[in-house]
């Protein structure tokens, strides 16, 4: 019955201003809803893409993150000889002992300071992470106080550009290169020679060991081996899983924040839609009486008004998603609550988010329209015809 | 008294309204018969119950007591759903204020009752065109109600009333909102529907001049039919 659809649609156009306002109310809610889950999604994507396929991370048993983990030199050298480690183009094992420390740095555009991760790297750290590419300058020479910084560190912190000098651990460090690490968390890190950094920070232990497996199905066997060896108090997991786990707390936090925020907002939007629809019903009382007199059943009236409200919800959803999708072009940074360091990432929209947002918006339309539509359908014909 | 020619037979109908705790007796023991093809004017002073009686005949309201039979169907026993269906096939409505749907064009307004009939789109359009040509509104059928004069709107409303080829046409003060010329026009049209197309029409009016255009007259006074006036 396309005529009935046009009937609902044209009624919305007729009261153009209230329609736009109601739609905007819903659009706002959808915008908040979508952008927060896009944020959670973007964060997850960034952290998950930080890990790559066959790489594994070894941490101290019971450590959740590299920051909490300590691996002493003996245990690290036991790992270094494992036959499961893949061999690179240069004939050497793809294995790196790394150190992770946090320092605070001054932000560029404000007086604020934030934690930044310093990663002490080994010779193969870079080949283990194909996402990381040097964009300007050169790699640091081993055994010197030269460092390279991730692109988003260079952009957002004071004195973090090429040829600049950073002061930490009572030593000055020269920035000789800037690297790009795509959408990964490495973009927010500073890299330098692990041994030099351990000396300066007076650390006896590494934080983690990263290596590539010859074959990805070797992990299970390695896990058993490590748990049986009394000399090793370590846990091993895939790099991807490690970063996925890191993203979960933050993503869950954002999701809860998003849902509670939108729930509060959505009450407003639903009430707004309800008021609009009640007004529409009141304005069209005689019209409802006429339709009923012509032979339209109560349920047709219910449907026509509900349809109007659903269209409101649908357009609100489209508008909200449109504005939310613009956020994709924005990069923001947040505190990574696992490492308490800064992490830069973007909003990311997925088909799932689109479906969820639209469903949510249409539901708001439904919730706002139900009572008014019900009232319209309950009207007495003779009484409503008298209202001219 | 079965009679093939009888289209309406009202038997001892009572109707009252409850307002707060008060009971307002609107219609008292109404009995009336009408032959197929009649054009009846229902007259009487304001508040005498004309609209109430018309609404009962049109199946918009329920009697308290008595029966109303239209074309062999006792409408006082129909359920609300069945009554709505019955109206869509058997009653054409003409209202004082035309009651066209403002967001639909003249053509769509006329098409509206046909949505309930199960006709195909093509059949519907044929019926609509025919009805619109009866009321001489072919050249304005794409206009919205607010682009038409009162008389033109009433003609569109009449097209809407006849498009389903109903058993009876009911009109509540169809000229009440019109100037003389437009009213004359509408009454001519109703006369034509009655004489040429054989439509049975019941028209409520308190204007004697309009009432005289009908072929028979009934007077209501304080809820009682006064046959001898
Ligand atoms: N829904 C209702 N509730 C209460 N009283 C009603 C209702 N409908 C009609 N009445 C009363 O019934 C009486 C008859 O009303 P009705 O509308 O039938 O009069 P009418 O003859 O059509 O008058 P008019 O010429 O002014 O249209 C009036 O006193 C009116 O107040
Ligand atoms: Mg009346």
Keywords:
heterodimer, A: 388 residues, alpha+beta, 2 domains, two-stranded antiparallel ribbon, 11 helices, 12 strands, elongated, B: 229 residues, alpha/beta, Rossmann fold, six-stranded mixed beta sheet, four-stranded antiparallel beta sheet, 7 helices, 10 strands, binds adenosine-5'-triphosphate, binds magnesium ion
Helix share, percent of chain B: 25-40%
The 3D shape of chain B can be described as globular
Q: Can you tell me the residue ranges of chain A where pLDDT is under 50 for at least 5 consecutive residues? A: none
Helical element count of chain B?
A: 7
Sheet having the most strands of chain A: 10 strands, mixed
Structural class of chain B: alpha/beta
What is the number of helices of chain A?
A: 11
Strand content of chain A: 15-25%
As a whole number of angstroms, the C-alpha radius of gyration of chain A is: 30 Å
Count the E strands of chain B. Answer: 10
Name of the CATH superfamily of chain B: P-loop containing nucleotide triphosphate hydrolases
Radius of gyration of chain B: 17 Å
Query: Which regions of chain B have little confidence, pLDDT < 50, spanning 5+ residues?
Result: none
SSE diagram, text form:
The complex is a heterodimer of chains A (388) and B (229).
Chain A lengths: L1 H13 L1 H35 L4 E6 L12 H8 L14 E12 L6 E9 L11 E5 L8 E5 H6 L8 E4 L2 E10 L8 E5 H7 L7 E5 L6 H10 L5 E5 H45 L1 H10 L3 H29 L4 E6 L4 E6 L4 H28 L2 H6 L2
Parallel strand pairs in A: 3-8, 5-7
Antiparallel strand pairs in A: 1-9, 1-10, 2-3, 2-9, 4-7, 5-8, 6-7, 11-12
Helix pairs in contact in A: 1-9, 2-7, 2-9, 2-10, 7-10, 9-10
Chain B lengths: L5 E14 L2 E14 L3 E5 L6 H8 L7 E6 L2 E2 L5 H11 E4 L11 H6 L9 H14 L15 H13 L5 E5 L7 H16 L4 E5 L3 H4 L4 E6 L2 E3 L3
Parallel strand pairs in B: 3-8, 3-9, 6-7, 7-8
Antiparallel strand pairs in B: 1-2, 1-4, 4-5, 9-10
Helix pairs in contact in B: 4-5, 5-6
The structure holds adenosine-5'-triphosphate and magnesium ion.
The site of magnesium ion has 3 residues of chain B, from helix 1.
């Amino acid at each position: 019955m396309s005529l009935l659809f046009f009937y609902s649609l044209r009624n919305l156009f007729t009261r153009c201003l209230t329609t736009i306002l109601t739609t905007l109310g819903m659009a706002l809610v959808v915008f908040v809803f979508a952008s927060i889950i896009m944020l959670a999604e973007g964060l997850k994507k960034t952290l998950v893409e930080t890990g790559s396929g066959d790489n594994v991370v070894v941490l101290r048993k019971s450590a959740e993150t590299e920051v909490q983990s300590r691996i002493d030199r003996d245990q690290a050298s036991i790992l270094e000889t494992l036959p499961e480690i893949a061999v690179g183009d240069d004939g050497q094992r793809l294995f790196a002992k790394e150190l992770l420390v946090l320092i605070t740095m001054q932000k560029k555009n404000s007086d604020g300071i934030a934690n930044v991760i310093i990663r002490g790297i080994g010779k193969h750290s870079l080949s283990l992470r194909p996402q990381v590419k040097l964009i300007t300058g050169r790699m640091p020479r081993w055994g010197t106080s030269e460092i390279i910084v991730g692109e988003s560190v260079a952009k957002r912190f004071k004195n973090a550009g090429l040829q600049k000098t950073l002061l930490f651990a009572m030593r000055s460090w020269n920035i000789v290169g800037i690297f790009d690490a795509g959408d990964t968390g490495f973009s927010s890190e500073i890299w330098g020679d692990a041994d030099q950094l351990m000396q300066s920070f007076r650390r006896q232990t590494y934080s983690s060991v990263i290596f590539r497996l010859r074959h990805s199905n070797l992990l299970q066997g390695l896990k058993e081996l490590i748990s049986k060896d009394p000399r090793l108090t370590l846990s091993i997991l895939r790099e991807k899983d490690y970063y996925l786990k890191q993203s979960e707390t933050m993503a869950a936090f954002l999701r809860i924040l998003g849902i509670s925020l939108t729930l509060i907002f959505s009450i407003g939007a639903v009430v707004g839609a309800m008021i609009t629809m009640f007004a529409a019903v009141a304005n069209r009382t005689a019209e409802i009486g006429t339709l009923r007199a012509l032979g339209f059943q109560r349920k047709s009236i219910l449907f026509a008004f509900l349809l109007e409200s659903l269209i409101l919800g649908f357009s609100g959803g489209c508008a909200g998603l449109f504005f939310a999708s613009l956020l994709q072009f924005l990069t923001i940074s947040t505190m990574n609550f696992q490492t308490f360091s800064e992490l830069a990432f973007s909003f990311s929209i997925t088909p799932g988010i689109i479906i969820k947002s639209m469903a949510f918006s249409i539901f708001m339309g439904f919730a706002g329209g139900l009572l008014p539509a019900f009232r319209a359908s309950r009207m007495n014909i003779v009484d409503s015809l008298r209202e001219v | 008294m079965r009679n093939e020619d009888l289209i309406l037979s009202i038997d001892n109908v009572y109707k009252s309204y409850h307002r707060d705790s008060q009971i307002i007796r609107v219609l008292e023991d109404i009995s009336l018969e009408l032959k197929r093809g009649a054009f009846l004017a229902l007259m009487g002073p304001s508040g005498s119950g004309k609209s109430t009686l018309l609404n009962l005949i049109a199946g918009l309201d329920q009697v308290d007591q008595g029966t109303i039979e239209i074309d062999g169907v006792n409408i006082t026993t129909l359920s609300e759903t069945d009554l709505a269906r019955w109206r869509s096939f058997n009653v054409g409505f003409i209202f004082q204020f035309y009651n066209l749907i403002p967001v639909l064009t003249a053509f769509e307004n006329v098409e509206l009752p046909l949505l309930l009939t199960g006709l195909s789109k093509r059949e519907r359009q044929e019926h609509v065109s025919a009805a619109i040509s009866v009321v001489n509104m072919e050249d304005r059928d794409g206009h919205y109600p607010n682009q038409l004069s009162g008389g033109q709107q009433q003609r569109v409303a009449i097209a809407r009333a006849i498009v389903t080829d109903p058993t009876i046409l009911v009109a509540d003060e169809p000229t009440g909102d019109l100037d003389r010329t437009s009213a004359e026009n509408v009454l001519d049209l109703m006369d034509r529907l009655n004489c040429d197309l054989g439509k049975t029409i019941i028209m409520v009016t308190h204007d004697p001049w309009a009432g005289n255009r009908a072929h028979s007259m009934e007077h209501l006074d304080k809820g009682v039919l006064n046959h001898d006036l």
